[in-house]
């Protein structure tokens, strides 16, 4: 018998629809789910394509459900309620703690702002977040899930790629104006600028992509935390390699300026790490599936 599960829309689409239908606004739904209004709109559009019918009437006056949308809202609300009760019997009436080890900057910039969406889906799970320092193997002794920043190659561990972004050089607005940044039009123009260093985001791969046979910078401030380097960039201390999503709030506010359009593949990314022989508890699998379904 053919499976019907291929017809079930992804949960993050259903959650976005339920919030928008209940609140009557993509913007208010985005605020509740800690995502952007465009992300909610994109999820609704994907859901409508899967459903094969318009779920909302969009107009300048207000956002309202179509007849199909009204029927679907009841079904989705019932389905989400059932999912909240789908945990194993012994967990149905008990709260469950899920311990997650995360790199600090990933936690601040990516994960924590989006946690309300996970909590809305799994209210019985209490998340406990622990910091894991990249490359130093510093983390809480016992955690259920670990997200690592690195190459993704770890002996005896199963890894799943979560987020890998290209990098580009950027600096703070005041630094940009101080060094006449608009005149920086080619990679060679970085020669007389202060390059901020980090073993987590080495310059050499970007140099090679830009056609420069330059060694890794050997002098100047060095940061063993991406978040600290981002703060140094915004504080106008020099030029650093950044990622669009990680620096989006500063770029959008104009506090940080993209210096050159050349981007390179970073040797490091964010990976979900599991021990090969240690089965995950159901709540950990729920969390991983939720992470992999996000629009990063």
From TrEMBL:
Q: Which PANTHER family match?
A: HTH-TYPE TRANSCRIPTIONAL REGULATOR, TRANSCRIPTIONAL REGULATOR-RELATED
Keywords linked to the UniProt accession: DNA-binding, Transcription, Transcription regulation
- Biological processes per GO annotation: DNA-templated transcription
**Record-level Gene Ontology MF annotations:** DNA-binding transcription factor activity; sequence-specific DNA binding
Whose protein is this, by species? Cupriavidus metallidurans
Xref: SUPFAM superfamilies: Periplasmic binding protein-like II (SSF53850), Winged helix' DNA-binding domain (SSF46785)
Query: What is stated as this protein's family in its record?
Result: Belongs to the LysR transcriptional regulatory family.
Specify the protein name: LysR family transcriptional regulator
Database matches in InterPro entries: LysR-type_TF_proteobact-type, LysR_HTH_N, LysR_subst-bd, WH-like_DNA-bd_sf, WH_DNA-bd_sf
